[in-house]
TrEMBL record, chain B:
Species the sequence originates in: Streptomyces venezuelae
Single GO term (MF): carbon monoxide binding
Family annotation (Pfam families): HypD (PF01924)
Protein's recorded name: Hydrogenase formation protein HypD
Record keywords: Iron, Metal-binding
Phylogenetic placement of the source organism: Bacteria, Bacillati, Actinomycetota, Actinomycetes, Kitasatosporales
GO BP terms: protein maturation
Family designation: Belongs to the HypD family.
Keyword Iron: yes
Length: 123, 386
């Protein structure tokens, strides 16, 4: 119900005195009301919910967030234990039984496989 | 689609998970409020990838699930009338009322139509001036502005045969109710990102300070969830309890001012009953006096409603985070999506439905042969959005 997805504005018009747009969601196009984002322009992205654009998608924020994720672990890589990293890179357990692994942390174990989703039709 | 696949990147998920594992030193219980987040968590196995000390408690943020049985029964009653075209979002069709659902009303001859947007229902009203068109206006703060705009348009354009059956609910009073419960174990919240896209974060600092819980505004993709958890755990480990926005690409602190103004005009705050939970003060909206003419409950005097919840259904405890879905005796046996006892097993945001869709085989709830065919899916792989 709170499913809202980013879509790109293709064109803007008016219907019954209401600002409307055709919005593309990766190939699916919908008529979307722009009354809550009157400044939205053709080519911009917005978060759309049940036919209404509710918030502009801030691409700069998205980029910064992804960059932050990229940088996570950099310090660990720089100053962490190279033996442990080498073992982890090969997907192997800590190899030295007489010398416990220095940093507690998860091994690169594969995540459990789960039942696949049964596709639902969204309203 | 913009910024969806990027936020499902397994390599970045690993970095986030490593950071959480490196940060956590003791047990913490976080609640993800939104049912959409619950589905992401269970679908991708995020709860199983987190350190064992981090527990995710599923919250009541499934609007379909918390719509009171009495309101569902009123909808069924109104939808059964020959002069009515009843419009709804698709996820309400199989929600059980007392003994039947909207799907059944349709099969019995009722004119029930699924719409993508409430504006579609308004268009149906314009095209059918001799019939009453009722839209089922449920949902949280994300869905309320579209419904408010639709009622506003109906008034502006003078469409007298349109009305709204309203059962809107608000998140902050629900957080308050959860924290007030004597059995509450929640130490931090992942706030629902799209609710905050509309409302901003102004209602949360006071809650965070008074209950000493971090509240992290969180998105819906796997990396969004992990980042919400990472930030909440960081705060807890440091003894902090502030409001943080981990979904900045879709949430501004002030929310959407135009939507907030429309909500203020069309709705007024009221007490609201939540299915399985009970009445939460000031937790809902109803149409304000100016728009009362468009209130379906006033237009159709629905009487003689005798609600009856199945005794075996424990969805109320699930919605309050007191019970995991598979801990219910009826899960996967008496209660399945095909014959649900409660709304939590129906909705695309219900916690019971999430466990049934993605966990039932490993939980051993249902013999594999008795289930629809499924293919193995690895956590954190790309998933279709629409």
């Amino acid at each position: 119900m709170c499913l809202a997805v980013p879509g790109r504005v293709l064109d803007i018009g008016e219907k019954d005195g209401t600002r409307m747009a055709t919005v593309d969601f990766g190939g699916v196009q919908k008529e979307v009301c722009l009354e809550y984002l009157p400044d939205l322009q053709v080519g911009e992205y917005a978060i759309v919910h049940v036919g209404f654009a509710l918030q502009r998608l801030d691409e700069e924020s998205a980029r910064q967030t992804l960059e932050l994720f990229e940088q996570l672990g950099m310090l660990q890589e720089e100053f962490g234990d190279p033996w442990e990293q080498a073992a982890a890179a090969g997907g192997e357990p800590w190899p030295f039984a007489d010398d416990p692994a220095p940093v507690p942390g998860p091994g690169p174990e594969p995540a459990p496989a789960l039942a696949a989703p049964q596709e639902e039709v969204q309203p | 689609m913009k910024y969806i696949e990027e936020f499902q990147d397994p390599a970045l998920a690993r970095r986030l998970l490593d950071d959480i594992h490196a940060t956590v030193t003791r047990p913490w219980a976080l609640m993800e409020v939104c049912g959409g987040q619950t589905h992401t968590i269970i679908r991708h196995g995020i709860d199983q990838l987190l350190p064992s000390q981090v527990e995710l408690i599923h919250g009541p943020g499934c609007p379909v699930c918390v719509t009171p049985l009495e309101v569902i029964d009123k909808a069924l009653e109104i939808a059964s009338r020959p002069d009515v075209i009843f419009c709804s979002f698709g996820d309400m069709l199989r929600v059980p009322g007392t003994g039947r659902d909207l799907f059944q009303v349709r099969s019995e001859g009722g004119d029930v139509r699924v719409v993508y947007s409430p504006l579609d229902a308004l268009r149906i009203a314009q095209e059918n001036p001799k019939r009453q068109v009722v839209f089922f206006g449920i949902g949280f703060e994300t869905t309320a502005p579209p419904n408010a705009m639709t009622v506003h348009q109906a008034k502006k354009l003078g469409i007298p045969n349109f009305s709204l059956l309203v059962s809107h609910v608000r998140v902050p009073p629900a957080i308050e109710a959860i924290m007030q419960s004597p059995s509450c174990r929640v130490q931090g919240f992942l706030a629902a990102g799209h609710v905050c896209s509309v409302m901003g974060v102004r209602e949360y600092p006071e809650l965070a300070a008074r209950h000493r819980v971090p509240i992290v505004v969180t998105g819906f993709e796997p990396l969004d969830i992990l980042e919400g958890v990472r930030r909440a755990v960081r705060q807890l480990e440091r003894g902090e309890h502030t409001v943080d926005n981990a979904y900045a690409r879709a949430v501004r602190p002030e929310g959407n001012p135009a939507a907030l103004a429309m909500l203020e005009d069309v709705f007024e705050v009221t007490d609201r009953a939540w299915r399985g939970i009970g009445v939460i003060p000031d937790s809902g909206w109803r149409l304000s006096e100016r728009y009362r003419d468009f209130d379906a409950e006033h237009r159709f005097s629905v009487t003689g409603i005798n609600t009856r919840e199945p005794a075996e259904c424990r969805s109320g405890e699930v919605l309050q985070g007191l019970l995991k879905p598979h801990e219910c005796e009826a899960f996967g046996t008496l209660c399945t999506p095909r014959s649900p006892l409660g709304a939590t097993m129906v909705s695309s945001e219900g916690a019971c439905a999430a466990y049934y869709l993605y966990r039932r085989l490993e939980l051993g709830a249902v013999p594999a042969a008795a289930t629809a065919p499924t293919a193995a899916s690895a956590p954190l792989e790309a998933s279709p959005v629409v």
